[in-house]
Each structure stands twice: as structure tokens, then as C-alpha cells.
Design a protein that fits this description.
Blueprint: H1 5-15, H2 26-35, E1 72-77, H3 92-97, H4 113-116, E2 119-124, H5 133-149, E3 153-158, H6 164-171, E4 177-182, H7 202-208, E5 212-222, H8 231-236, E6 239-242, H9 246-249, H10 251-262, E7 267-272, H11 294-302, E8 309-315, H12 326-341, H13 346-349
Helix pairs in contact: 5-6, 6-7, 11-12
Length: about 350
């Protein structure tokens, strides 16, 4: 239809007096009604107490029994005693909470997860010591175990990648889970200087503890000069997708392979921010050139729509090495993408 004064008048009649929350498309109206209040008002993203993804804050009781009405519990794991290179990931949860504008609408998955699911930021794991790695891991496992026992899906923000092992011990306690693992490193190496629970070996430990099924695990984005220490991944049955092969294989094919590997069973999602190229995420402990772009990472995550996710984490954001805040911004975005997936997980859709 050619542009005309009649068309202009039609648009004026329809939109001149409408607010930012008045939507005519039912698909968008469904979201707007959850976010905007009367008069087109919505909370300012830079106001109020900062929380993960701007989710409501819920102060948990000692046994976390007061969170059982939630679908998802977002929580921080400010601990980096397991790093082998640069420390500072203990500040990751705080840096992600400070990001003032992520979501609330996911345009690709057409959902607003924090508004459409029962989600709360329940604070940080209460650590008994800032010096003892073994004690810290025990505290993480106990905290995650309480979330799982409450019938709630745990979604954590680290912290270094060693935190995934105690979380998996809680999530996979009754039966080993599969995993989608996006990272620069396989994190399946052995002990260093007498310590095997560092951030370079959580998934070897999880397999050997019987809480992670290696044949239902795929690791994507792997690269760097330490590949010779990760033979456990392929020898145990994990599928490994190297970063150097991503362009040739293509993201759709990698998504297809990942869906085939994890199948329909319970699956954990672990995202290490160093999977992104340092151009997008310099603020991390072990940056590796040749990584994923943010667009590639988001496409990979979104490709897991419908997977049976039972837990997740985003780890290794060390904000001190990135004064631009891009690393925290991208970490928060990946957290939002993963939380958006939970809208479609049978673990939640079957619950509600």
C-alpha cells in the first residue's frame, strides 16, 4: 500500500495516545502486560537493589525451605580458590548483578523468563572460610543440595570453574546427568601440586564421582596450548568440539550433534566466559585467542531450546581485568539466554 495521508491518519489514530506498554500484537501484549504498569511505567534498570538479571530478591532461610515455590533459584558463588592462573573470579557474581540492562524480553526465544517463571536471586553461597578450598566446595554442595531438595533448579554464577563439581554432586546425586559445556578448556585434567579439585579438573572429578555421564556430555569451543592434558574427555566418552573446527562444521551442525549427545535425559549447562574470544571477554583468568563470538555463543545456547535442563552455571568472570565491563555484560547476557531456555525445559514445564 502506497504511503498516503489516509495511512498517516490511521497510524495517528492507533498510536498517538498509546503508551510504551500498549501493544496491539497479542504476542507482544502478553509480555508487556507483565512488565509495564498502568500509564506505561516500568522499573528503571539502574534503580533499586541490584540482583542477577534484575530478578526479585528472596532471602532464604537456613534450610532453604522458603524457596520451594520457585522454578529457578539464581545464586552467586564468589569463590576462586581453585584458579591456576589469574584470580579475581570471586567478584564475578557482584559484577553480573551490577549490569543494569539485560532482557527482560528474549527476541529469539520470544519469552521474558524472569517475568514468566518463578525466579528469584537468593543471594550467595554462605562460605565458612575464604581460605579453605575443600571446605568451600563442601559449602557449595550443601547449598546446591538444599535447592535441589526444594524441587528448584539451581542456576549459579561463579566464581571459578571448580564450583561446578560440587554443584553436580548435588544435581546428579540420584543419577548422573548429561552436560552441555561451552568453554575454551575441557577442565578434565588431573591433580596439580597435590590438588585435584582445581578449576582445570571439575568434570573429570564429576565423572569419577558418578554424577556426570561422559557419554551424554559435549564440550564446545575447546582450544589453546593445554590440549595434551585433557585426554580424559575423549577416553571417557565425551564429545569434544574444537574451536578450530567450528567454522567448517557450522553452528547448526554443532547444535544437532549436541542435541544428539544429550538426548532427552536430565542435562546440566555450564558456560565458562573464556569460551568467548578475549575480544569479547578479556576479564577472565585464562583467556585464549580464537574463541567464540557473542553471536555464535548465543546461537549455540538458543539451539538447546527444549533440552531437559536441570541446572546451570556461568563462571570465570574476573572483572578486574576488564575496565570496559564487557565481560560482565556478556556474562549476564549468557546467563539470561540460559535462563530463557528454562522456559522450555521439561523439568519446569512438567512441574507447572
Amino acid at each position: 500500500m502506497a504511503w498516503s495521508l489516509e495511512r498517516l491518519e490511521q497510524l495517528r489514530e492507533k498510536f498517538s495516545d498509546s503508551t510504551g506498554g500498549d501493544m496491539h500484537d497479542p504476542k507482544f501484549r502478553r509480555i508487556a502486560e507483565k512488565i509495564f504498569s498502568e500509564g506505561g511505567h516500568r522499573p528503571a534498570p539502574y534503580a533499586g537493589m541490584p540482583t542477577l538479571l534484575d530478578a526479585p530478591h528472596r532471602e532464604p532461610d537456613t534450610d532453604l525451605t522458603n524457596i520451594s515455590d520457585l522454578d529457578l533459584a539464581l545464586y552467586g558463588v564468589p569463590m576462586d580458590l581453585g584458579v591456576t592462573n589469574r584470580n579475581g573470579a570471586r567478584f564475578g557474581p557482584r559484577s553480573l548483578r551490577a549490569i543494569e540492562r539485560i532482557g527482560p524480553y528474549n527476541d529469539a526465544l520470544e519469552c521474558a523468563p524472569v517475568h514468566e517463571l518463578k525466579v528469584a536471586d537468593i543471594g550467595d553461597v554462605p562460605f565458612r572460610s575464604r581460605f579453605d578450598l575443600a571446605l568451600s566446595h563442601a559449602d557449595i554442595e550443601a547449598f546446591a543440595d538444599k535447592i535441589v531438595k526444594a524441587g528448584v533448579i539451581p542456576v549459579g554464577v561463579g566464581g571459578d570453574h571448580s564450583v561446578s563439581h560440587p554443584i553436580l554432586k548435588a544435581v546428579g546425586r540420584n543419577a548422573p546427568v548429561g552436560m552441555v559445556h561451552i568453554d575454551a578448556h575441557c577442565d578434565t585434567s588431573g591433580s596439580y601440586e597435590g590438588e585435584k579439585f582445581h578449576h582445570g579438573g571439575p568434570f573429570r572429578n564429576a565423572v569419577l564421582d558418578g554424577v556426570l555421564d561422559p557419554e551424554r556430555t559435549i564440550q564446545i569451543g575447546i582450544r589453546g596450548s593445554a590440549g595434551y592434558i585433557w585426554e580424559f574427555s575423549e577416553m571417557s566418552g565425551m564429545s569434544v568440539v574444537h574451536a578450530r573446527d567450528i567454522n567448517e562444521a557450522g553452528i547448526p551442525e554443532i547444535i544437532r550433534k549436541a542435541r544428539q549427545v544429550i538426548g532427552d535425559g536430565p542435562t546440566y549447562f555450564s558456560f565458562d566466559i573464556d569460551s568467548l574470544d578475549p575480544a569479547f571477554a578479556p576479564g577472565t583468568g585464562t583467556p585464549e585467542a580464537g574463541g567464540l563470538t557473542t553471536r555464535e555463543a548465543m546461537e549455540l545456547i538458543r539451539g538447546m531450546k527444549g533440552a531437559n535442563l536441570v541446572g546451570a552455571d556461568v563462571v570465570e568472570v574476573a572483572p578486574a581485568y576488564d575496565p570496559t565491563t564487557n565481560t560482565a555484560q556478556n556474562g549476564a547476557q549468557m546467563l539470561f539466554e540460559i535462563v530463557s531456555l528454562m522456559m522450555f525445559s521439561p523439568s519446569i514445564s512438567g512441574k507447572n
